[in-house]
Amino acid sequence: MNEIMQLFLENREFIFVIMLSIFLGVEVISNVPAILHTPLMSGANAIHGVVIIGAIIVMGHAAADNYLALGLGFLAVVLGTLNVVGGFVVTNRMLEMFKKKKS
After folding, report:
1. Residue 24 — pLDDT band, cuts 50, 70, 90?
2. Which of 30, 41, 49, 86 sits 20 to 30 Å CA-CA off 79?
C-alpha cells in the first residue's frame, strides 16, 4: 500500500492532468451537435491509426524479456485496430443515410 501511495505522490501532477483531460473531453464531446458526429468520427479514426503505428514502434523497441511493454503494445494494437475498423463502419453507415434512395 505504501508503494502505491508513493507512486501517487511522485506522479500527482501527471495524474491531475489525466483527470482534468478526462473531464474536459467528456464536456466537449457531450456538447457536440449531431451534424458534426461524422466528421469527428473520421478524425478520431485517423488519430487511432497513429496510435497503432506508435504501438508497433514501441513493441519493436522493447526488449524481448520485457513482457509488460510487449503485452501493452499488443493490447494497444488490437484495441486501436478495433476502434479504427468500428469507427469506419459507423461512419459508413451514417453516410449511407444521406444518400438518395434508388427507385
Report:
1. very high
2. 30
Quick one: pLDDT at residue 38? 67
69 in Cβ contact with 59 (< 8 Å): yes
Q: How far apart are the first and last CA of the chain?
A: 68
**Largest interatomic CA distance in the chain:** 70
Q: Mean of the pLDDT values across residues 77-85?
A: 88
Helix, strand, or coil (residue 79): helix
* Alpha carbon distances (Å) from 75 to 45, 50, 56, 79: 17, 15, 10, 6
The beta-carbon contacts of 19-24 under 8 Å, at least 24 apart in sequence, are none
Per-residue b/e over 39-53, b at no fewer than 16 CB within 10 Å? eeeeeebeebeebbe
Model pTM greater than 0.85?
A: no
- Residue ranges of the domains in the chain? 1-31, 35-103
